[in-house]
Queue: 2 jobs
Job 1
Amino acid sequence: MNLYINCCVREESRTDRLAHAVINKIGGDFHVLDLYSENIKPLDNERLSHRMELCANNDFSDTIFDLAKQFASAETIVIAAPYWDSSFPSMLKIYLENIYVIGIVTDYDDKGMPKGLCSAKKLYYVTTAGGVYDSIYSYGYIENLAKNYFGIKQTELVKAEMLDIVGFDAEDILQREIQKWQ
Ligand SMILES: Cc1cc2nc3c(=O)[nH]c(=O)nc-3n(C[C@H](O)[C@H](O)[C@H](O)COP(=O)(O)O)c2cc1C
């Protein structure tokens, strides 16, 4: 199963359009996980205590672990998120804190070093930016998690930038990026 993690907010999202070009190129079946339709909740005190108790007992049968298991078993992962406030929408962070479960997506080896447990060979991070895109707090962060903690060895950034700057033709810029995948 391939997994499309859609964190795009707007109906006319350009990030989602670019992500679909990537998905079509990759091919195969994709499970679409629309983060804004999933009712994914932050780890508040109640949810965190519950999760910690289950993890302490090595019991991963609760539905609270479903998203983590889905992420860990995906073959290829595409994340789409617009560039917001030099990063990405908070919903993606909420998703990450829900799936980041030691014992499902990552673990520690005998020396205390992180050992990834995810099956995916590759993760694509798709984004679009109104101005100049700086990857440090979005793709850079996801790349670090994927490679150093989740065991996903390959990551790729797919982006279109300068889409909201007067004098730049947003549709033309986007189409050029989309065409690279056709
Ligand atoms: C809440 C919000 C925050 C944004 N922050 C940035 C930013 O920090 N830098 C930037 O270049 N563009 C920023 N933008 C512009 C978006 O990155 C740009 O419009 C992007 O293409 C939106 O993607 P979408 O069409 O998929 O919604 C922001 C837009 C919104 C709505």
Note: The pocket of flavin mononucleotide is lined by residues 8-10, 13-16, 82-86, 128-131, 163-164 (CB under 6 Å).
Job 2
Amino acid sequence: MEDNEVIIIGGGPAGAALGGYLSKAGIKNLIIDGANHPRKHVGESLVMSTYRVFKDLDFLEVMESERFVRKYGASWHAPNGKEFAAPFDQIEQEGIPQYYTYHVDRARFDLLLLKQAENLGSRVYQGVHVKKVLFENGRASGVRVNIGGKEMNIPSKVVIDASGRATILGNQLRLKKKDTLFDQYAVHAWFTGVDRGDGPTRNYIHIYFLPIERGWVWQIPINEAITSMGVVADKKVFRASFSDLSAYFSSSMQTNPRLQAAMREAVQITPFTPEGDYSYSMEKFVGNHWMMVGDAARFVDPIFSSGVSVALYSAKFASEQIQQAFATGDFSEAALKPYEDKLRKGVEVWYEFIRLYYKLMPLFTHFTQSPQHRLDIMRLLQGEVFERDETKVLDAMREYIQKVEASDSHLFKGHLTAVPID
Ligand SMILES: Cc1cc2nc3c(=O)[nH]c(=O)nc-3n(C[C@H](O)[C@H](O)[C@H](O)COP(=O)(O)OP(=O)(O)OC[C@H]3O[C@@H](n4cnc5c(N)ncnc54)[C@H](O)[C@@H]3O)c2cc1C
């Protein structure tokens, strides 16, 4: 018996949003999360494009009434102390009538979104670990779970992997391909007493470049008092510091003058959490009667705060594809493939942007200052990535880099890194 038309493994933003969309479309779904929410999670700064999904899911009212911190822009700090601010009110985004998005305490945000899915009609099991996806005759047919120490099978017509970086299905089917270019590692914690300034950029996300390759620090306001701080760098850099994360963190804070000033009175209030091995892609995102959404499908470096937006849009696209499958009765890999193509296109735009960024970091700040390219860069930063044809600025970045590579005397020559861009 397939009482659950769709089983969704994971109740993070991808799983909860998908449940919400399916429930709105009248498709019965069960979300199973191994954790009991609220549970802690990294990924606290959103991009503007998330607005559309919140609106679709009648969730904007919740975002406003919960008073999540409004994020009006992003600011980038070079090691020499120079600041480049990018306010969000410089471009119009179709269907987005506000010039801010949000920073969120993920424990609270994820719980609220999961509750919203429940309000819309999803069934939710929490504290229930999915052990594996079941297959019969070459198609996914349900999941095996552990409920209170007892194992049992739950059948369904479609299985969705929304398990985040646990990537349950990618591991089970051995589809996971580690990113060969980026092996980044992060350490983060919450602080009080961070000096965020008083001006209009006070509640922006602040990104501080560190004077090491692909090294940076995020500063994300969680509420008036609490600020999330995280250091990101190549894993090799961390390896040398594993034994003393605290010393590593503190010394990183000294390497950018603005950051040092911001942290002068800071008091740590949560333990350091490390996050590693996080860039990968699956060979495929769909199969017969199964799909992957959010981080379960693909994870790219978090420098542009893209993860939650990708998770939400993957849910939107997956729900459209699933509705079509129910309409036609065809749940085959071929029938579900257009979803994969659409999602891949968007994530690849983020990935291309990230590669070009890490290839020549001063180029990013140069383009954000350039009257010709500034607005196109802003569109990307605000999450408009699903139409590659509309992201010509990436071609312009690539051409610029090629010119620097070919020149002997270009000012940026010494900043080129080994990251390949083709
Ligand atoms: C260092 C770092 C910084 C980041 N910064 C940002 C940022 O600023 N902004 C941003 O948008 N994104 C950021 N991200 C990315 C963001 O964290 C993710 O993209 C986002 O959480 C993806 O949502 P998801 O629903 O796919 O997965 P998750 O949020 O991870 O949810 C997956 C859920 O699945 C459940 N689960 C896992 N395995 C099982 C199982 N076997 N059975 C049942 N349930 C299971 C888990 O309990 C979890 O609740 C960052 C990521 C990293 C690593």
Note: The radius of gyration is 21 Å.
